[in-house]
């Protein structure tokens, strides 16, 4: 895009020089039209100006200014070709570019186009010149320059929208990615707790079993002692009469 803007600035500088010599340009067209015996029809195409310069121009001043006009038109055509490769684009930018290409076509009829405010190129002509002869040809370059500026504006806006969409997508991805991390953390934190609870339950169960086993063993031991005591003890005899 910077290259496009640099090329456009260069063309605008050349056009400013040309605009300062508009009366010279109109005079050159008048002279060559007279030499071509073509005083009735308007100057309505780039190819017509090219023909006047190539075949009916008799002095260097007229040739220089006519050539300057043709060079600016040629530079604008090259710039339009460069715009075709610039991305991104949409239907609006494509239509603007297509309009520029049609206007700069050498055979395109320029007789009906008029540059509007703030351009004053038509105002510098007489009513007859503006209406019947030169109004279209002097309007060509400022109209194309406006179209290219409009194209740049739309393309830059489109580029910003594309960047915002890309940035928004990246931000959404980055925002979504950490959401999984706490879940994993909860899972990882929960897993040891569950394992610990299982171990604790198992330990409690073991303790219960151990305590139960101890209780059973103690009871068994007491029962054994009790039974042994009863078995070894001699029968009770009353004292006195049965000493032996």
Task: Summarize this structure as a short list of keywords or feature phrases.
mainly alpha, 7 helices, 244 residues
Distance between the termini: 135 Å
Give me the strand/helix succession.
HHHHHHH
User: What is the number of helical segments per DSSP (H or I, 4+ residues)?
Assistant: 7
How much helical structure, as a percent, in the residues?
Answer: over 70%
Gross morphology is: elongated
Q: What is the overall pLDDT average? A: 81
Number of E-state strands: 0
Classify the secondary structure makeup into a structural class.
mainly alpha
Model description:
By secondary structure, the protein is mainly α. It has helices spanning 2-19, 22-35, 46-56, 60-83, 91-103, 127-132, 135-232. The N and C termini lie far apart (135 Å). Mean pLDDT is 81; it is low at 184-198 and 224-233.
Write the layout of secondary structure elements.
Layout: H1 2-19, H2 22-35, H3 46-56, H4 60-83, H5 91-103, H6 127-132, H7 135-232
At a glance:
This protein has 244 residues and is mostly helical.
